[in-house]
């Protein structure tokens, strides 16, 4: 029996492989038929025939439909209403209406809403207000309030910031490209690995920057992601890596492919989190360890390497 | 032939291969078709392959018989994640009208070792729905049992909420939350459940009616452990969609002031106060004094704008301990402060994160460094992480 999780994984794997054999091998019309069958009258999706309904199903279905360019009104109808009903009093998103706000479902909910262009319907202030508190003192992210951190949430929670930065300007206006320099100040920046640093001001902030270090500091802070990227990288590199290779939840847990995937994706998100422009290379000071640690950027909605995503996007828009 | 109850483990030990069971002699097992060039073929144990090959035979022929039913049990025990087998089992149940109480018992027996299995909980939901309201006590009891093993099991909580909404049984739910919070006031799942009950129980008056007593309860919890994020969020949640009442409830600002005055564990108090101010709350002089009392000598001149002053305190917390991983503050809030010249009128409520136990993070980082150092990989890893990243 087909299942949305395996469908999502298979489509993403094929796209990650890319190429002229991989992409055309996907039978889009059959996938569409399957997705239609999984659609529930409530607007949500089931994971399989007569299977469970939750926000995961909504995300995997919409993600697959979107990337294969088969997303239509019938598929996205009422999904927004369902996901909206899953945002909790805490600000995060739950798997089902009423359940606890959870990192995995928050990512799924937000990503799906972005894909159907209804992210504005969520209380994004509340969402951000929840997710920023999910980063623990260890540097890693926890999935829920008062629970332990886990490497995989580096992507589920960390990815939320990437999603908002990329698809939703949370600052009000678009941040200017980072290679435009205004005033320079040396400030004690909490996010970087060096002791003193140069801020990236833009032309219009000259007035503010000239008022002294602290204002410059505030100005500089706008460019920073809303989570502590270096701290998360530190957690991933020091605690999530298995010395024999592969990555894991935390120390003394076994490595597995799921954690390897999501820890690496989280690490990539961190390294690229200082830039709004997806085509730029990461700033050296945004990267913990040698610059050779830099990973391929991933598309924060689909969790596919960006180059492969572009190839697939182009391919499926043609056919 | 129906099996006895509770023999799953026994079956494993004394298993007779299907090929040797007379009742299966007429069936030709269908092997798994991995295609011509399997890339990562799984090394199945012979018992597993055999069971699944026989399963495929009856599944493809849609044989909904007693022997198929028994076979699904064996297949589930071998791989409880196989949703296809669970699905077929349900189809057999519908056709044969097998005993649903027995079914609950079966799920119950394998639940402990499969407590986070989506298929198991979905199956239970399906059975309970068929049984209807008569099943309510048993199901609440079952989830209670599961939650006693893991008070935060996400599936158990979702299932419990489904039972309440579909089958009823709300009478003791608020008490149940109370008990769990008594055992662990930090249990966020219990707080979430409390919110669920308070807002959705048909036996209570709804959020507005319950709000007053809930605020009091929550404030008690906050004062007991101001570093506990859960009640702070719950408190905010009680005033969801009613900001006016929130900023006007004197108990809210009062608890912030109380916690600030203790000069310890005040991050959430500060955050809440900031939030209040953003929404129009006008703090009295005592708040300013309490904030100023938190400032360290090196934090610079006192800010006339209280919102900014709070930001500075939060910022100082973030930068205090060098070896600790500080959490970012809220650039967006700073931005608003700068651009509007103050907090008044700003409705921005993006907040910073909290700094909890310093020793915890030091311990974790030290432990990980120690492990790596002992394994001889530390220098290589940290200085040259490429070793593990390049292939």
UniProtKB/TrEMBL annotation, chain A:
Region Disordered, annotated ranges: 175-214
Keywords tagged on the record: Metal-binding, Prenyltransferase, Repeat, Transferase, Zinc
GO cellular component: protein farnesyltransferase complex
Domain of life: Eukaryota
Prenyltransferase alpha-alpha toroid domain span: 2-304
GO biological process, one term: prenylation
Annotated EC: 2.5.1.58
Cofactor: Zn(2+)
Co-factor binding comment: Binds 1 zinc ion per subunit.
Catalytic activity reported: L-cysteinyl-[protein] + (2E,6E)-farnesyl diphosphate = S-(2E,6E)-farnesyl-L-cysteinyl-[protein] + diphosphate
Enzyme class (EC, first level): transferase
InterPro entries attached to this UniProt entry: FTB (IPR026872), PGGT1B-like (IPR045089), Prenyltrans (IPR001330), Terpenoid_cyclase/PrenylTrfase (IPR008930)
Molecular function via GO: protein farnesyltransferase activity; zinc ion binding
CDD domains registered for this protein in UniProt: FTase
Role description: Catalyzes the transfer of a farnesyl moiety from farnesyl diphosphate to a cysteine at the fourth position from the C-terminus of several proteins. The beta subunit is responsible for peptide-binding.
Quaternary organization: Heterodimer of FTA and FTB.
Similarity comment text for this entry: Belongs to the protein prenyltransferase subunit beta family.
Stated name of the protein: Protein farnesyltransferase subunit beta
Taxonomic source organism: Citrus sinensis
UniProtKB/TrEMBL annotation, chain B:
This protein's name: Protein farnesyltransferase/geranylgeranyltransferase type-1 subunit alpha
């Amino acid at each position: 029996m087909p299942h949305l999780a395996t469908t999502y994984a298979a489509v993403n794997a094929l796209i990650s492989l890319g190429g002229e054999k991989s992409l055309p091998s996907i039978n889009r019309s059959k996938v569409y038929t399957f997705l239609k069958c999984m659609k529930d009258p409530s607007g949500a999706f089931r994971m399989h025939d007569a299977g469970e309904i939750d926000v995961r199903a909504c995300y995997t279905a919409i993600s697959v439909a979107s990337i294969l360019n088969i997303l239509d009104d019938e598929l996205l109808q009422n999904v927004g209403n369902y996901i909206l009903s899953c945002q909790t009093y805490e600000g995060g998103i739950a798997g089902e209406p009423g359940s606890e706000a959870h990192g995995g479902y928050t990512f799924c909910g937000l990503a799906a809403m972005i894909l159907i262009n209804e992210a504005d319907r969520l209380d994004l202030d509340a969402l951000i207000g929840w997710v920023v508190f999910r980063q623990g003192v260890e540097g890693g992210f926890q999935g829920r309030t008062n629970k332990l951190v886990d490497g995989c949430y580096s992507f589920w929670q960390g990815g939320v910031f990437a999603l908002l930065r990329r698809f939703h300007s949370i600052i009000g206006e678009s941040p200017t490209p980072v290679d435009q320099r205004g005033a320079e100040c040396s400030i004690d920046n909490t996010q970087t690995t060096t002791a003193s640093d140069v801020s990236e001001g833009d032309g219009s902030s000259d007035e503010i920057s000239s008022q002294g270090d602290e204002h410059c500091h505030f100005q500089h802070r706008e460019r920073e992601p809303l989570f502590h990227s270096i701290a998360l990288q530190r957690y991933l590199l020091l605690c999530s890596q298995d010395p024999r290779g592969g990555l894991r939840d935390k120390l003394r847990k076994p490595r597995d492919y799921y954690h390897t995937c999501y820890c690496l994706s989280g690490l990539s998100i961190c390294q690229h989190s200082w830039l709004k422009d997806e085509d730029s290379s990461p700033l050296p000071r945004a990267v913990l360890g040698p610059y050779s640690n830099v990973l391929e950027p991933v598309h924060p909605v689909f969790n596919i390497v960006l180059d492969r995503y572009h190839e697939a996007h182009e391919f499926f828009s043609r056919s | 032939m129906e099996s006895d109850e509770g023999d799953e483990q026994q079956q494993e030990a004394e298993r007779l291969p299907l090929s040797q069971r007379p009742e299966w002699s007429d069936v030709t097992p269908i092997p798994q078709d991995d295609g011509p060039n399997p890339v990562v073929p799984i090394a199945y144990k012979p018992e597993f392959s055999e069971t699944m090959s026989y399963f495929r035979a009856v599944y493809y022929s849609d044989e909904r018989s007693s022997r198929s039913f028994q076979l699904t049990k064996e297949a589930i025990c071998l791989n409880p994640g196989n949703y296809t087998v669970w699905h077929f089992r349900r189809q057999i149940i519908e056709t044969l009208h097998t005993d649903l109480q027995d079914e609950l018992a079966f799920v119950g027996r394998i639940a402990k070792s499969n407590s986070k299995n989506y298929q198991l909980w979905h199956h239970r939901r399906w059975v309970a729905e068929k049984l209807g309201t008569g099943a309510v006590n048993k199901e609440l009891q079952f989830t209670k049992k599961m939650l006693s093993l893991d008070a935060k099991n996400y599936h158990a909580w979702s299932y419990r909420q489904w039972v309440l909404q579909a089958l009823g049984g709300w009478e003791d739910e608020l008490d149940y939350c109370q008990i769990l919070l008594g055992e662990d006031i930090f249990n966020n799942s219990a707080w979430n459940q409390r919110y669920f009950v308070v807002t959705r129980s048909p036996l209570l008056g709804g959020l507005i009616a319950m709000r007053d007593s809930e605020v009091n309860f929550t404030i008690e919890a906050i004062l007991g452990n101001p570093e506990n994020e859960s009640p702070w969020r719950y408190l905010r949640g009680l005033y969801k969609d009613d900001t006016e009442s929130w900023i006007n409830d004197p108990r809210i600002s009062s608890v912030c002031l109380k916690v600030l005055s203790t000069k310890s564990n005040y991050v959430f108090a500060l955050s809440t106060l900031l939030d209040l101010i953003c929404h129009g709350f006008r703090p009295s002089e005592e708040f300013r004094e309490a904030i100023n009392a938190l400032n360290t000598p090196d934090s610079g001149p006192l800010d006339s704008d209280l919102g900014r002053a709070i930001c500075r305190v939060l910022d100082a917390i973030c930068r205090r301990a060098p070896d600790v991983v500080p959490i970012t503050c809220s650039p967006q809030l700073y931005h608003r402060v700068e651009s509007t010249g103050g907090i008044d009128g700003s409705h921005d409520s993006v907040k910073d994160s909290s700094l909890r136990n310093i020793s915890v993070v030091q311990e974790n980082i030290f432990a990980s460094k120690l492990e790596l150092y002992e394994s001889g990989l530390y220098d290589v890893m940290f200085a040259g992480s490429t070793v593990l990243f390049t292939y």
